[in-house]
């Protein structure tokens, strides 16, 4: 980080939009918002944009919460309470609350910012970075802010480079060779290509940089128009694209990679299949996302736990794990793990076998259970002898089975087995 980008980061505030449910995760978000979802053994998804902000030198952060926010707020209070006002640092948790007009829910992404205008203006940041709270990636936002200031644009839109064949599910930017956004198209059938790269397209990451004063002027202007949907992607960005005052910032220019990461890494783990895959990928010999990079740490709430323990050493009853990640507080008792990711405090009992399993905190796998390609929710008690992942029809009748063949197991599903 050079001196100029560091100075700009110090003049900036990050505003994280963390109110989304993530309905495509089904029962996993019945009790928690998508940004509060567990990821990577000990983290939550929200930790990634927050860590990016802190590592980028931004120490003023607001987090707008809405849907089932209790576990998210508790996580922020426990894991992100190290900010000190005397060092000009702050982290404000901003739940949707009743306003003077008796309306309380955030109507959209832009409205979440507008309703917290007094909080933002109280800190008087020169620049504001609007962030989505539900993606997995490492990015130096200070470089994006510097790009914004140098360009003179009214908004800079963070964009991920994706193959054109996969871009139809995104909001896609058509840009010229100077990064100016010529057109913003939502989920196009024929996505516009990047200049000089006909096979790739630029998709919005839901990250925007504005000069703060100008942003509020734009929000006031948009609010006076008919049909205003209170949304950045639906209202503010198209308005600025039409004026020719929006530029794109390709993620590859500011993504953070260790020496082990070959390609820029960004994931939306918004489905059960994507969530399982991104977690299991971390068990690879050389994963695409390096969580061991001390130069760009992912901050989180680190629970005080005993080390993981592996016990019993008999044929057929050996505590073992191959190509797996096992978190603190876990006890692998006479069971075998292959390509699994276990979160804090998981217990597996004798003769159980797990393959391709993501187990969230404090779940327990009892004797002789056999699980293949499964996601186990927090605190679930897997009964002795349960077999999942070997009979698709039986799995679908008892549990949530994804299009990719991944089974999601929650405690209510287990309870129904006995009824």
TrEMBL record:
Keywords: ATP-binding, Carbohydrate metabolism, Glycogen biosynthesis, Glycogen metabolism, Nucleotide-binding, Nucleotidyltransferase, Transferase. Residues 14-283 form the Nucleotidyl transferase domain. Alpha-D-glucose 1-phosphate binds at residues 106, 171, 186-187, 204. The keyword ATP-binding applies. GO terms for biological process: glycogen biosynthetic process. Involved in the biosynthesis of ADP-glucose, a building block required for the elongation reactions to produce glycogen. Catalyzes the reaction between ATP and alpha-D-glucose 1-phosphate (G1P) to produce pyrophosphate and ADP-Glc. Belongs to the bacterial/plant glucose-1-phosphate adenylyltransferase family. This is Glucose-1-phosphate adenylyltransferase. It comes from Harenicola maris. The gene is glgC.
């Amino acid at each position: 980080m050079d001196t100029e980008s560091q100075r700009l980061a110090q003049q900036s505030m990050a505003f994280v939009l963390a109110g989304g449910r993530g309905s495509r995760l089904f029962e996993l978000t019945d009790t928690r918002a998508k940004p509060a979802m567990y990821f990577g053994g000990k983290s939550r998804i929200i930790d990634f944009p927050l860590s990016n902000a802190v590592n980028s030198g931004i120490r003023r952060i607001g987090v707008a919460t809405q849907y089932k926010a209790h576990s998210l707020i508790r996580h922020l209070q426990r894991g992100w309470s190290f900010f000190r006002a005397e060092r000009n640092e702050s982290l404000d948790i901003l739940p949707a609350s009743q306003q003077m007009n008796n309306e309380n829910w955030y109507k959209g992404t832009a409205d979440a910012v507008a309703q917290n205008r007094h909080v933002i203006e109280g800190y008087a940041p020169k620049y504001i970075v609007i962030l989505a709270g539900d993606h997995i990636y490492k990015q130096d936002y200070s470089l994006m802010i510097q790009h914004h200031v140098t360009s003179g644009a009214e908004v800079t839109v963070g964009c991920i480079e994706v193959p054109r064949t996969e871009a139809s599910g995104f909001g896609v930017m058509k840009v010229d060779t100077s990064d100016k956004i010529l057109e913003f198209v939502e989920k196009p059938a024929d996505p516009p290509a990047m200049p000089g790269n006909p096979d790739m397209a630029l998709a919005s990451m839901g990250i925007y940089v504005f000069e703060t004063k100008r942003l509020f002027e734009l929000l006031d202007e948009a609010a006076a128009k008919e049909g205003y949907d209170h949304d950045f992607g639906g209202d503010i960005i198209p308005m600025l694209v039409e004026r020719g005052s929006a530029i794109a910032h390709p993620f590859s220019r500011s993504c953070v990679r260790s020496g082990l990461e070959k390609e820029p890494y960004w994931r939306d783990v918004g489905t059960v299949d994507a969530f399982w895959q991104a977690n299991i990928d971390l068990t690879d010999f050389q994963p695409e996302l390096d969580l061991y990079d001390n130069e760009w740490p992912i901050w989180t709430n680190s629970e005080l736990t005993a080390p993981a323990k592996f016990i019993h050493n008999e044929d057929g009853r050996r505590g073992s794990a191959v190509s797996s990640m096992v978190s603190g507080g876990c006890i692998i008792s006479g069971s075998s793990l292959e390509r699994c990711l276990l979160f804090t405090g998981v217990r597996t009992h004798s003769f159980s076998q797990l393959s391709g399993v993501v187990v969230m905190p404090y779940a327990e796998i009892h004797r002789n259970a056999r699980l293949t390609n499964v996601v186990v929710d927090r605190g679930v008690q897997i009964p002795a002898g349960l077999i999942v992942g070997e009979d698709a029809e039986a799995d679908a009748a008892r549990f949530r089975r994804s299009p990719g063949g991944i089974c999601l197991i929650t405690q209510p599903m287990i309870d129904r087995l006995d009824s």
